[in-house]
Amino acid sequence: MTYDNSRLRRLALISLVLQSAGRIIGRTKLQKIVYLANSIGWKAIDFKYHNYGPFSDSLAAELDNMKNYGWIEEREIPTSHDRVLHEYRFSNKYKQTGLSQLSKIEDIVPNGKQLTSRTKGLVKQLNKFSSDDLQIMSTLAFLRAQDPSMSEEQAVDMTRKLKPQFAKEEISKGRRIFAIMKDFLDKPGRQPS
Amino acid sequence: MERILDHFLRVGDIGKNGFEGMLRTGIAVALLHDIGHGPLSHSSEQFFNFKHEEISAQVITRSPISDILDRAGVSPKTLVKIINHTVSGRYTLISQLISSELDADRLDYLGRDSYFAGVGFGTIDLERIISMLRVFRGSGILENHAITLNKGKYAVEDYIVGRHLMYEAVYFHKATRGAERLIISAIRRASELKQSGLIPTEFQFLENDSAPSADQILAIDDHTLFSTLTRWQHANDPLLSDICRRIIERRLLKSIDLTIERFHAYHDGVENKFLKLAERHKVNADYLCPIDSWVVTPYKPYVVKPADDQPSVITNIFVNDDAGKPTEISQLPDADVIRALTAKKYVDRLYMPEEMKEEAEALFKP
């Protein structure tokens, strides 16, 4: 292996997220899905709180790299609001490369096969949510990850302060992330689905 | 920093009122913003997995540094905000001058690094750059920011080009990066071995796989690191001993540039052949054949937009256009060279011991 473990983990996680999702529309959405996927046992990428919730410079840089390699395809989608959305896919041409990284990481990480299987399930579920939903959900998860003693209610209150543009009901609905994550967190004796 | 602020006082862009306090703050932040660096500066962030900015913030806000700052009438918390670009008002200027595309740090280190590296480029027209700076007089995103007069644009362009060349030829030189990778491998190997007495007290954090604390970073320097590597040459573990001997005897790794074509060839079959080659040479590829990747943008042209709830600092360079309107420098009509330098450059290098290089190169030949 000629990539160091930490980079191989990063590349494998991003490849896995995009291959599981098929396509992800929006940079914010991609950042938030990778954040949540990373938190179920990958520990591949460090995130900080940024304007829209947890954000990672190293993820943004790695996406750039992977785009440059041709592994990831980025397509601009114009919207009616004078904004451009970006669609991300893992390139079919390099699917084999992505799979080979995954198999390397599965050999290195304890219960690697189980972790990739759980990640696939989580990503498929998360990709059904909107970018706004994921902003709220990832912020709630981030706040509690930073301070495990924080209750769900406290996380909701804090998120309302950080994101005054969202209605209280919207933020409160975001609490479903805790139930979703519970399903995909590592549990002793759990079998791959 | 002192020269720039003095210049602003001289041209009347900063008033005498409150200047002393601003100068003290500017000098303090210039002296302290990098106090959290570990051995070998930025390199150790890769070896030990920490961020020097976070260590700097901790050191600045605790005794004895915070006491000294308090006595000088400088707020340690303000210094941290200045470093983090979360200030507003007149300190925005200091924040921009301490860290941006045209900051006091870069103006200071470029010329010095160029001199000590013995290269002819990277020298800058410091006098001209400083004398062409003005504080923007107006409101909007540039309020309290330094801008450059139109006639100073060539000196600034020269500085951007010089910095680009220094990155290409010095900071990211293949030998430098290769040496860093060897040190990373040595530290990784020593941490994995978990042998009692192998890791000196100063590096105990490696045994717990944790990030170093501020105290631990302050306790180690280049000499501590190199004396440890020197000692590890005689470690019982043959791999650790081999890596450290390569560093100390300067038998550094050699590299092959992975152009996009080679990069894909590597992943489409060359990798397996390369790993077999390493095996034949009895080289542990996991530690001695790393791929080093980096991306550099010689000049970042985008404007940092303030977050919804906090002020921010504009970090790119604004120059007055021919009509006297501040314009981001890459947008000036005659800034073709700078526009070319706004593109990201991706570099991937495959490293290996010298004895493998010739055969490895042959693997990439069609």
Question: How would you summarize this macromolecular structure in one to three sentences?
Answer:
The complex is a heterodimer of chains A (193) and B (366). Helices cover 59% and strands 11% of the residues of chain A.
Largest interface by residue count?
A-B, 18 and 23 residues
Helix and strand pattern of chain B: HHHHHHHHHEEHHHHHEHHEEEHEH
Average predicted local confidence, pLDDT of chain A: 88
Structural class by SSE content of chain B = mainly alpha
How many beta-strand segments of chain B? 7
- Overall structural class of chain A, as computed from helix and strand content, comes to mainly alpha
N- and C-termini, Cα separation of chain B: 55 Å
Radius of gyration of chain B: 24 Å
| CATH class division of the domain at 2-32 and 85-171 and 298-343 in chain B | Mainly Alpha
Helical segment count of chain A: 9
Strand order of the largest sheet of chain A: 1-5-4
Order of helices and strands of chain A: HEHEEHEEHHHHHH
Task: Give the DSSP E fraction of chain B (strand runs of 2 or more residues).
Answer: 5-15%
Uncertain spans of chain A, ≥5 residues at pLDDT below 50?
189-193
Q: How much β-strand is present in the residues of chain A? A: 5-15%
Helix content of chain A: 55-70%
Task: List the keywords.
heterodimer, A: about 190 residues, mainly alpha, 3-stranded antiparallel β-sheet, two-stranded antiparallel ribbon, 9 helices, about 10% strand, globular, disordered C terminus, B: about 375 residues, Hypothetical protein af1432, 18 helices, about 50% helix
Structural summary, described in words:
The complex is a heterodimer of chains A (193) and B (366). In chain A, a hairpin with a 5-residue loop joins β4 (72-78) and β5. In chain A, α1 crosses α5, α2 packs parallel to α6 (131-146) and α6 packs across α7 (152-162). Chain A has a three-stranded antiparallel sheet. In chain A, strands 2-3 form a two-stranded antiparallel ribbon. In chain A, 59% of the residues lie in helices and 11% in strands. By secondary structure, chain A is mainly α. Mean pLDDT of chain A is 88; it is low at 189-193. In chain B, the strands form three sheets. Chain B has a three-stranded antiparallel sheet. In chain B, strands 1-2 form a two-stranded antiparallel ribbon. In chain B, strands 5-6 form a two-stranded antiparallel sheet. Chain B has 18 helices and seven strands. Among the domains of chain B are: 2-32 and 85-171 and 298-343, Hypothetical protein af1432; 253-297 and 344-366. With 366 residues, chain B is mainly alpha-helical. At the A-B interface, α3 of A face α15 and β4 of B.
